[in-house]
Design goal:
Strand content: under 5%
Largest sheet: 2 strands, antiparallel
Helix content: over 70%
CATH architecture: Up-down Bundle
CATH topology: Growth Hormone, Chain: A
Number of domains: 1
Order of helices and strands: HHHHHHHHHHHHHHEEHHHH
């Protein structure tokens, strides 16, 4: 079936729900380690407490992908029911998270939240291939990079905005020790999750399956129970995985191992390198938590500002070359992070909300490079993959591709928990250095990918 080209605004609205999903992920990245520490967790326990994300992604995304490939409702469509179910469950988990009274309550809610986000996320990746002709894949996936950056940016900055504008005080805490600003940020995330998904669902139609695809869906239904068929489809797809997809394994492994190191230990690394303390009861640690949000927000600002600029660069350099350069810049940024200061001023910007200026200190340098890395990670591997997989198996292959993200995270959790953290002298700063090295390694492996030549240039 020939797919018609969509306008820029049509591609924007179809991906708008990606904003809500990424707002939720952004809240986790910047706040979960701090929440665990407020509830009494030790540094060495943090990796295992992050296990929810990768395990739910490993289990949920391939299954949801395979199920959505075989789903069709004339009223609800193929992918959109999964958007709605995931967004609704995620909203409820976000509202409940700041009320956690124990570490394990927070960890349990994170399992629910991550499962819900993965239910919505995987069909969104397949949605691009479903709706767009191949020449618009770059624009579709980079639009998702834009919303990844935009959603995560607002999620990261929300607590700091609430504090800096005097709406809440840094010292305002709930009974469980979690800052009140964290509560409001998660509540705003719940609203964003459901409303943005609704915009996509209500404004975007889905192509109905061809008669042949409908017949294939009916034939598969006759082959046995849904779970059995789904697992068989996943097994067959893994066995028949295209060469290009196999070559993406190390390209995904090293950067995602690195990003999990970064998300888990950035707050502690900042607290140690800038304020020489790891005591979560000090205002210095609270300041490091706010700075984490600001730095993560900055790299996501860079991500969504540069996402569309990457379209002509990807066309000229090629996706794999651009990915190498992007990962290299982020890796170097993390390697120099421990040497940067939060008092040495780079430049100041006028404050649009009041008197004075917004000061950008030296510590923000690494987040500029990481923003370019993040924009590329959210788009280039998916562009390479989408051109290499069969169109009728997009859902299952996008779900399997998520294994290339979550398996490195699971390996990171257990290796960091049981020997890497000790090997690095139990020093969070050294964890960040390791992340920098791994980003560069991922970039090097990207140069060896065999990319399918497309007759249509990306648009």
């Amino acid at each position: 079936m020939k797919k018609k080209e969509l306008s820029f605004w049509q591609i924007l609205t179809m991906n708008f729900g990606f904003f809500g999903v990424q707002f939720s992920f952004g809240l986790q990245q910047s706040n979960m380690s701090a929440i665990y520490k407020y509830l009494g967790a030790e540094e060495a326990e943090l990796p295992m407490l992050w296990l929810a994300g990768p395990v739910t992604g490993l289990v949920v995304q391939p299954i949801i992908g395979a199920i959505s490939d075989g789903t069709w409702s004339p009223k609800f469509g193929r992918r959109k029911p999964f958007f709605l179910i995931g967004a609704l469950i995620a909203s409820l988990a976000l509202i409940a998270m700041p009320y956690s009274s124990t570490i394990w309550m927070a960890a349990s809610l994170l399992w629910i939240l991550d499962a819900a986000n993965n239910i919505a996320l995987e069909p969104y990746r397949a949605f691009i291939s479903d709706k767009l002709p191949e020449k618009q894949y770059s624009l579709g996936f980079l639009m998702q990079s834009f919303f990844t950056g935009f959603g995560t940016t607002l999620a990261n900055f929300t607590p700091a905005i609430l504090v800096s504008f005097g709406i809440l005080a840094l010292s305002d805490k709930m009974d469980n020790g979690i800052p009140v600003s964290t509560y409001w940020a998660f509540a705003i995330g719940a609203i964003a999750s459901i409303t943005t998904i609704l915009v996509s669902v209500l404004t975007t139609s889905e192509y109905p399956p061809t008669p042949e695809e409908l017949q294939q869906i009916e034939d598969e239904k006759a082959q046995g129970p849904l779970l059995k068929r789904t697992l068989e489809n996943i097994y067959t797809a893994i066995k028949e995985m295209p060469k290009t997809m196999r070559q993406l394994i190390p390209v995904m492994f090293f950067p995602w191992y690195a990003m999990f190191c970064y998300w888990q230990y950035l707050t502690s690394a900042l607290s140690l390198s800038l304020y020489d303390t790891l005591d979560q009861n000090t205002t210095y640690f609270s300041q490091a938590q706010l700075l984490t949000g600001n730095l993560n927000g900055t790299y996501n600002i860079v991500c969504f500002l540069i996402a569309f600029a990457m379209i002509p660069i990807a066309r000229k350099l090629g996706a794999k070359q651009l990915h190498f350069v992007s990962l290299f810049l982020g890796g170097v940024g993390l390697l120099i992070m421990p040497y940067l200061s939060d008092t040495a001023v780079l430049f100041a910007l006028p404050n649009p909300f009041g008197e004075g200026s917004i000061v950008i200190s030296q510590i923000y340098l690494f987040s500029f490079g990481l923003g370019i890395t993040w924009a590329s990670m959210m788009a280039m591997p998916y562009q390479i993959l989408a051109a290499a997989i069969p169109s009728n198996k997009t859902g299952v292959y996008m779900g399997i591709f998520n294994m290339f993200i979550v398996v490195p995270m699971i390996i990171q959790i257990f290796s960091m928990q049981y020997f890497v953290f000790d090997l690095l002298g139990q020093n969070p700063i050294n964890v960040i250095r390791l992340a920098g090295v791994f980003l560069i390694l991922g970039g090097i492996f990207s140069l060896f990918i065999t990319v399918k030549k497309s007759p249509n240039p990306p648009a």
